[in-house]
Amino acid sequence: MKHYKPYIKPYLSAFLLGPLLMITEVLGEIMLPKMMSLIINHGVAQRDTRYILWMGIAMAFLALVMALGGIGGAYFSAKASICFTSDLRQDLFAKVQKFSFKNIDDFSAGSLVTRLTNDIQQVQNVTMMGLRMMFRAPGMMIGALIMAFIMNPRLAVIILIVIPLLTLAIVTILRTAFPRFQVVQKAIDTLNNGIQEALTNVRVIKSFVREDYEEAKFKKANRSLKDASMGALNIVIMTMPVMMLAMNITTLAVVWYGGNIIIAGDMQVGDLTAFTTYIVQILMSLMMLSMVFLQSSRAMASVKRINEVIDVEIDLTDECSGHKEKEVTEGRVEFRNVCFSYQTDRQKNTENLSKKPENLSKKPENLVLDHLNFTALPGQTIGIIGATGSGKTTLVQLIPRLYDVTGGQVLVDGMDVREYSLKHLRNGVGMVLQKNVLFSGSIEENLRWGAEEASMEELRQAADSAQADGFITAFSKGYQSEIDQGGSNVSGGQKQRLCIARALLKAPKILILDDSTSAVDTATEAKIRECFRTSLKDTTKFIIAQRISSVEDADQILVLDDGKIAAMGTHQELLKTCEPYQEIYYSQREREKEVSA
Where are the alpha helices (DSSP H) in 98-210? Predict the structure, then answer.
């Protein structure tokens, strides 16, 4: 509950008023059967129409008060539960936004969607139901039980026999249902993951004619959810028949035993009518309580999953930052003995790597980057080339602290990146990721991610530098043209150039291009590189590329091989000294000749 107190406090009045107003319904439901018995015993028996009329008016007034109390209780219960879970959802989303890449890796996107929607909805439902039933069900059961004993203690003993038996049955049902609801929520995760993946990659699916395969995969996940849901509901549906059976048997026993008491002259007919109503109320209150507990068992499975997100320790924070106000001003980048591992043994590796390398008794496992050392001076262009899986993308992700190093240091302007605040560090770094991402909205809105307050002239200048202004103005609405979700209505090359323009608009001191001109023709790429040399003279540029032509003008080229720097130098130096670089260069030249021929 410690997680949820801050969300309850602002709406404490609604949390209190909802259950309290429901008490009026409880009091009315307890009094109405007694008033009805009085009408039968006195008004009907003595044919006193005046008595019947006034008692009827009193019952009508009581019913009106009950209705008003019920409406008020329902309103405040709904307000409390909806506002409470709305704030919780908002903070949960904000927590996810603070996740590092490592934290995000621990959850699938589909699972996070389920936790933010379905799981919180389960908590909302049980909160609303709980507030409405908090006093209503126990109050009705206790009140009806007291009235039953006042009217006839001998007849009320029947209830004392039934209640423990019903309670045992309900507890057994709940204990069986709880683990099944956990399975249901996991099945929803799996289904959401599959839907998201299929919709995101629908073009790939169609291009490989894999619709049948995806339909079969979805059918399997859907069947798993159906089976899990039926497994849980098969337990749930037992609750109502068990309760109804108990209610009918108890009512039959009361009528039979009460009838004998009436025949003996120890009880009036009206009292038996009221007593039967109280029996139904007691059993109905038990049924309501069982439904609350049943919903609670499913909600507890959801609460556990929500708490997993709340309790995540974010591994990239500003808590250790010694210079939170310092900004990136020069763009000097230095890697000192940097190592990195994605695996779960990173903490162990970090402890080992904190020692001097020569003192290591055992080399750390699963290193993606292995003791990298280099320096990029302000304004330099650093090319990074290497085979797939050599660690190129991982290397540049350490500069803006998308991940933290396992060992060694990454320094920007002579200071460890962990000393900066994340906001100031990342404001100084512009990054075009390997996977180009655009958001639904206009082109202008997408570009303004780089600088929200930029003028239209600045937007056009950034787009022109990225060779994007030409195709943007060719659209009928220009910069107001709508981008579909994921940028599906623009080509790969157009998407890359828009992402580059967005990064340029940020005017960063460090610019990282992660294979972000692969879909652009060589002539356009050459113009983009020329723009970098002229308009970004003071910006340190890191360019990851598969084509050597993309980096041959760089001041320094890093050749990565299995997480290590195999060679480092200018294009001409590497052609003379680095055999892997020579092989890549000449093989690409041969392909270019074959294409041109």
Answer: 101-105, 109-114, 120-133, 136-151, 153-200, 202-207
